[in-house]
Amino acid sequence: MTVTISMPQLGLTMTEATVGAWLKKLGDAVRKDEPLLSVSTDKVDMDVESTVDGVLRDILVEEGMTVPVGTALALLDAVGKDSSTPAPSASSAPLGDVARPAPYNSVQIDRVLEKEDASETFGSSPRTSPRSSPRARRQARRLGIDIATVKGSGPEGRIVEKDLLDLAPPPAPSRPAATSSQADAKRRQLIADSMTESVRTIPAFSVSVEVNAQKLVALYHDLSEPISRSAGAKLTYTDLLFRALALSLAAMPAMNAVWEGEVRRRSQVTLGLAVATDRGVVAPVLSEVDHLPLPQLVTRRAALTDRARQSRLSFVDLEGGVGTLSNLGMYRVDRFEGIIIPGQSFILAAGKLRERPWVEEKALVVRPTVVLNLSVDHRVADGALAATFLERIAEVIENPYRVLWNE
Amino acid sequence: MSETNLEVPSAVEPSTEAQRVITYAQAGVEGVREEMRRNPNIFYIGQGIGPRGGNFQQSRGLWDEFGEARVRDTPIAERAQTGFGIGAALAGSHPIVDIVFMDFTLEAMGEIVQQASTIHYISNGRFKVPFMLRAAGGGVRSTGPHHSHTFWSFFAHIPGLKVVVPSTPYDVKGLIKTGLRDENPVIFLEHKGLYNTKGHVPEEEYLIPFGQARVLRPGNDVTMVAMGKMVDRALQAAEKLQEQGISAEVIDPRTLVPLDKTTLLNSLARTGRLAIVDEAYATCGMAAEIAAIAACEALDELDAPILRICALPAPHTFSPTVDAYLVPSVERIVQEIESMMGKML
Amino acid sequence: MTPTKNTKLDRGLILSLYRNMVLIREFELKAREVFRTGRMPGFIHVYIGEEAVAAGVCAQLRVDDYVASTHRGHGHALAKGVTPREAMAELLGAVTGCSGGRGGTMHLYDPTVGFLGSNGVVPPGILIASGAGLSAKLRGTDQVAVAFFGDGGSNNGAFHEGLNMAATWEIPVVFVCENNLYATEMPFSKATKNTNVASRAAAYGIPGLQVDGNNVLEVYEKAGEAIARARGGGGPTLLECLTYRWYGHHEGDPGVAYRTREEVAAWKERDPVKKLKDDAIAARMLTAEDFEKVDGEVAAVLEDAAQFALASALEDESTALRHVFTD
Q1: Among candidates B84, B106, B85, B107, which has minimal Cα distance to B94?
Q2: Which chain A residue is nearest to residue B9, measuring alpha carbons?
Q3: CA-based Rg of chain C, rounded to a whole angstrom?
Q4: Which among A107, A139, A221 is the top mutation candidate for probing chain B, defined by the most B β-carbons within 10 Å of its own β-carbon?
């Protein structure tokens, strides 16, 4: 009989964990209580043991994936008498004799035996099982749901992935569109708390500047192809702005500090980047940004934003930033003011890069410009310091070939 | 704290309006001109591409700048044009052979398939064939059965040929420059209905690598792969679908060989649904090829059958009504995707 | 010997022409021999009887001139300078062949001597050679290209398109038609109304001449004129060489189903190799021993080539996808 191994509840407050490493391969024999895989939560790493003697038949969650407690992780073919309970407590997956995706097999046979009718869709004659998409079947396996019991909402009653996700509480997080409302609400609360704290406790003021981005645009075009190729990810304007910010900060140690009862300088340049995700905004950080060559910055930024969108950020990814870059340039926002993240000293808000009137040698011309707004914690920096910092950032952007080498 | 939507990594054009706007035809001319200035071994032959500047103005000004030696009109002899081009490539030149209408490449298929595509391989790498065949396909206003074809899959089928199908002015310039630096046979297939379309094209030099698809519109519900003139129709369809709450991602592969499978399959992994919009016929076309790739390499990602939205299987008629009917229209694209999503009109 | 107008007849030239013709003949005989042992893949089209054309034309070419050839191309390849070892190895599909074993008899390639390939299609060589000539002209060199093709090719679209465009653009190319009276089994007289290939040149506004393709000195002289004309910027010439192949169209075709034995015998009497030798001896320019010496050298070269080829390996599957594209 088939036995499902699900993600166990390993601590009182635990809600989800990440699959670390599979310790057995498909087809391996497994003994009861032998470790099958290791998992990690934010607090602890642990092994998950097999509940039966058997053979590992199906691995449903890959290494690196974070899944909620109760998610089916593996299927085992149990041998001998099954003396164990099929799943640990708190599991929300169906217990007992989990059906294999048998409909899949019988659908194949149905198709082979049926005569083809040219006017009908292939295989639409009487069948013993519902038609389902491969993706739905995969989801059924992952969730340990018998697909034969699912009602399909797709064309002609086809079972589609959504039908499985609607049934099972927490779905596989690899599909960002399907998130649980529980996690959403929780994230929203966190953001609400954080922003309120910022506004309440940080005396912030802001300075802003409009910057001539003509050379930045030229630089972007020059660098885009070679850097993107070298980095394995597409170079963006955000990357260039990020680097400009990092270089400026590295040259002004007075700004690389936070208020912790007194001004505490930081030894490294660690900066955050605001990323929009389905669950709300998050600002993961990159450390030693001033020392990263541009291709590496691009690669790391891309990896970081991917993880952010898949809700796979770790504690380390979120801590230690002294300031954050937020770019709303994809929208018709000319300028805006950001809210400083508690624990940080500033936030640089960038608006849309577009053509605007510009004065050059007393004549009116048209140039691509971008408006930067720097909000600063007044406990760390006064107006003059903030203005100097902003000036520096503007200078780097207007003469961006400095982005290519450290000054 | 504020929100950000980072630029989609695979989008190509930066969100600035600092670039100038030129036509698809002008972009091609610019690309060719720059490469001809850079490499004296490039020469350009074809019917009407000299003083006239090309039937579609696709070579305008080149004869004036480079003269008869390097920009030369040929008699109506596609096979000779192509064969001469191949011979010249073997001897160290880099010819552009402009067949003007894609349909007439058929007159030269023997040279393209039997000679150009094979020589580098069969000579065990001793000869290179740096050769570009340029032509415009696609139907526009009853161009009829001899002037409307889009059989790019014929070329994609043959190993040893690179196949480029640009859909925007930006793409034309960047891709034609890359093509002229590529020492392989490159079949550069523009669309005659796109020559007058306009778009942002940087004046500065840039190259677009082959094998890099472009995500023109991000989306979550269905991956629409489109090429040539169908790209714009797919984008229009995506707008209409959005009104129905269907979020379509539109991807232009830009080069059929090499094909950027990764971008297509990554998109499919997110959306679970794939539709390919191609002005060519469905049978044995690029849509069929992309569908096969998806079914072989990403079967478990599929939440719905793959759709090929293609020209209906009849020759390209002169009749204006039927001509428009045969080729995928925005309405047909919208309808087919709506039914794929399970929603009926 | 027939003194010819422009050719400086000296021993060196005669021996060189003789050597090349014998090299071709012995190569072809050796190839037939190996083919019959079953060790040669595919099928071959031997050039025996036509040696004077390849030898006479190619003797007037430089190593940086170009030649594009036909399915019956071993003679052209050897005369242009492809080594017997590499050619024989190629026939066997060995990696030491001039095309790495990938081309075989109909796809011999050698850029070091300007050999743009024998060809499995009739007659793209006309276009390829013209293209190479065009490239030379554009690059400002005085290289010349020669396209070999047969009577069969002279009725094909590529002939008409190619000659027309090459003439109009004054490309430095010489079109050499080896008229051996048959295209596979089709007599030329059944394939066309105008069996005078040379006369077709007038249709394209270029000079056309007919020569005795079995008289190597005549071929040498007339080819020399045509090549000089091209090299000097005078454009293409059509040179029709009347000749005959002793054997069938390809190995396995006895060649007598559509030809009479008498016809074959008559042409064998006009053996170009024997003719040169006999004429030179009769004119007391050379002795029989001189020629026998060459015979001996060539025999040794061929024996070596055959051994080399038979001992060489075939391509390993692991490189099957190499060189589809170049980087």
Answers
A1: B85
A2: A234
A3: 19
A4: A221
The yes-or-no answer to whether B20-201 and B214-340 have a common fold is yes
Q: Are chains B and C in touch, 3+ Cβ pairs below 8 Å?
A: yes
> Among A14-23, A95-104, C311-320, which stretch is predicted with the lowest mean pLDDT?
A95-104
Question: What separation in angstroms does the CA of C182 have from each of A222, C32, C154, C192, C243?
Answer: 62, 21, 12, 12, 10
Task: Indicate the fold that domain B214-340 takes in CATH.
Answer: Rossmann fold (3.40.50)
Q: How far A209 CA lies from chain B's nearest CA (Å)?
A: 18
Question: Does the CB of B4 have a partner CB in chain A at under 8 Å?
Answer: yes
- Helices B78-90, C125-139: axis angle to 10 degrees equals 60
Residues of chain A with CATH 2.40.50.100: 2-167
Q: Would you say the ipTM is above 0.90?
A: yes
DSSP state at residue B203 = S
Q: Do chains B and A touch (3 or more CB pairs under 8 A)?
A: yes
Which among B4, B11, B340 has CB closest to A275?
B4
Rounded Cα distance between B13 and B35, Å, is 22
- Supply the pLDDT for residue C4: 55
Where along chain A do the CATH 3.30.559.10 domains lie?
184-404
Global model pTM greater than 0.80:
no
Asked if B304 lies within 8 A of A160 by C-beta distance, the reply is yes
Instruction: Give the residue extent of every domain in chain C.
Output: 11-306
Enter the tokens of residue C4: 């010819």
Q: Taking CB atoms and an 8 Å limit, are B1 and A213 in contact across chains?
A: no
> Counting one residue from A and one from B, how many pairs have CB atoms under 8 Å apart?
137
Selected from 3.30.1330.10, 3.30.479.30, 3.40.50.720, 3.40.50.970, the CATH number assigned to the domain covering C11-306 reads 3.40.50.970
The CATH code belonging to domain A2-167 is: 2.40.50.100
Q: Kindly list the partner chains of chain A, i.e. chains with 3 or more CB atom pairs below 8 Å.
A: B
Low-confidence ranges of chain B (pLDDT < 70): 1-19, 343-345
Q: Which residue has the higher pLDDT, B207 or A313?
A: B207
pLDDT for position B12? 42
A156 confidence band (pLDDT: 50, 70, 90): confident
Is the domain defined by B20-201 classed in CATH 3.40.50.620?
no
The reply to whether residue B18 touches residue A276, judged by beta carbons under 8 angstroms, is: no
Residue B157 a catalytic site member: no
DSSP class per residue in B24-89: HHHHHHHHHHHHHHH-TTEEEEETT-STT--TTSTTTTHHHHHHHHHEEE--S-HHHHHHHHHHHH
Catalytic residue among B94, B147, B149, B316: B147
pLDDT digits 0-9 by tens, C76-102: 999 999 999 999 999 999 999 999 999
C260 — contact with chain B (CB < 8 Å)? Answer: no
DSSP E strands in B182-335: the ranges are: 185-191, 198-201, 214-217, 222-226, 248-252, 255-257, 274-281, 307-311
Mean pLDDT of C153-168: 98
Q: How many CB atoms lie within 10 A of CB C235?
A: 21
Between CA C156 and CA C125 the distance in angstroms is: 12
Helix (H, G, I), strand (E, B) or coil at B111: helix
pLDDT exceeds cutoff 90 at A187: no
Given an 8 Å threshold on Cβ–Cβ distance, is B209 in contact with A236?
no
> How far apart are alpha carbons B275 and B250 in whole angstroms?
10
Mean pLDDT on A342-365: 95
Which of B80, B123, B159 minimises the CB distance to C109? B123
E-only strand ranges, A292-352: 323-327, 346-350
The answer to which of A117-131, A315-329, B193-207, C166-180 has the lowest mean pLDDT is A117-131
| Cross-chain residue pair A194–B301, CB shorter than 8 Å | no
All structural domains of chain B with their residue ranges: 20-201, 214-340
What architecture does CATH give domain A184-404?
2-Layer Sandwich (3.30)
Query: How far apart (Å, rounded) are the C-alpha atoms in residues B56 and B133?
Result: 16
